[in-house]
Write a structure and sequence with these properties.
five-stranded antiparallel β-sheet; mainly beta; four-stranded antiparallel β-sheet
Length: 108
C-alpha cells in the first residue's frame, strides 16, 4: 500500500480486478503525458503517474480509479517524494472528509 499526500494507492490482485474494467474507457493523459490521479484545486499540483499504463474511473460519487501499470511506474508530485510502483493493478482512493451532512474529497 502506498500513500502520497491525500492519495492512497492499494495493490489489487489481477483476478480481483472487476471484469468491466477491460472495456471501460481510459482517462485521458494530461498535456505532459502523465496519468493524473488527483489535481490540486488550490495549488494546481498533481499526483501523477509516469510510465506506460492506463487509468479507469469507476462509477460512483467519488469515482475510485483503477490503475494498471504493465511495466511499473513512478508517482510524482511537486511537493512529495516520488514513489516507484512495481508493475500490476492498483485501486486509487482520494482522502475524504466528513462535514456535518456531507462527505467530500479533501481539497488540496
Amino acid at each position: 500500500m502506498y500513500r502520497q499526500g491525500d492519495v492512497l494507492i492499494v495493490p489489487v490482485a489481477e483476478e480481483s480486478v472487476p471484469s468491466h474494467i477491460a472495456d471501460a474507457p481510459d482517462e485521458s493523459r494530461d498535456p505532459r503525458g502523465r496519468l493524473v490521479l488527483a489535481l490540486g484545486e488550490v495549488t494546481g499540483h498533481a499526483h501523477a503517474v509516469l510510465g506506460a499504463g492506463r487509468l479507469v474511473r469507476e462509477p460512483g460519487p467519488f469515482g475510485p480509479l483503477v490503475l494498471h501499470l504493465p511495466k511499473g511506474g513512478k508517482v510524482v508530485h511537486e511537493e512529495h517524494a516520488a514513489i516507484d510502483l512495481p508493475r500490476g493493478w492498483y485501486r486509487v482512493v482520494r482522502q475524504r472528509e466528513y462535514l456535518p451532512g456531507a462527505v467530500r474529497i479533501v481539497a488540496d
